[in-house]
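Problem statement: downstream parser choked on a complex file, so we are re-checking the raw output for the zinc ion run. The parser issue turned out to be on our end (a line-ending mismatch), but while we're here, posting the original submission so the record is complete.
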Amino acid sequence: MGVGGFSRTCLKCRNFITVDQDGRVVAHDRPLSRLLCHASGQLAVLVSVEWGPGPRRGRRVVSGGKGHRRDRRKKAEHLKPPEWMPNYQGEHPPTIGLPAKGWFGVWFPAHTMWEHERKLSSWVGSDRSFRWDGREGCWTVAGAHFPRVSRELLRRYPSLLIGREYNPREKCNSSCRNARGFLCTCSCRARNHGHGKWRSGWRTLGEFHGRRAGRPWHWTAVTVAG
Ligand SMILES: [Zn+2]
Ligand SMILES: [Zn+2]
């Protein structure tokens, strides 16, 4: 706990932590959790480690009384959407980005990194099904959880922005139209996919195209129909 008489608080998880000689945060679990804090192994300067004075000597608050709360820890900042998530009409609604391969990225407003993690953990269950992806700059979730995550987001927010990578040259055929599930990269941009069942109960607010890393993406803002 602390090197050189200083205690350090991880501003991601609020735990007391140690910073090694290279300035990296030593791996630690979060309080009341067996999950590793994602600040583990990162450079302390990058993860807003709070550097405070070590244990005070001499002055101890003995009696009850009112006692000012010494807790002046900075509030952790809300996680910003990664740059590849476009805004919709000038705002950032909760966003899901489905790449052609791999886990999907997810972000939602007014939540810290840790709150993102807590929510995802409660929706997705296992901590093997989601993880922080530093390169994407967002939390990522195993594909199978798309229905649950999108449902939970639409329960809490008025709209949801869903992007997917697609291939304009991939012909839409019967295997797309008769597909189950929601994974689709064909030129119909999932419009015909499984006869649209994957998005039943939603209404489209708007659509637009974009590119990401040179690849075409299609974005749809949806809300709950009704
Ligand atoms: Zn199709
Ligand atoms: Zn399809």
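For whoever reads this later: The longest strand covers residues 202-212.
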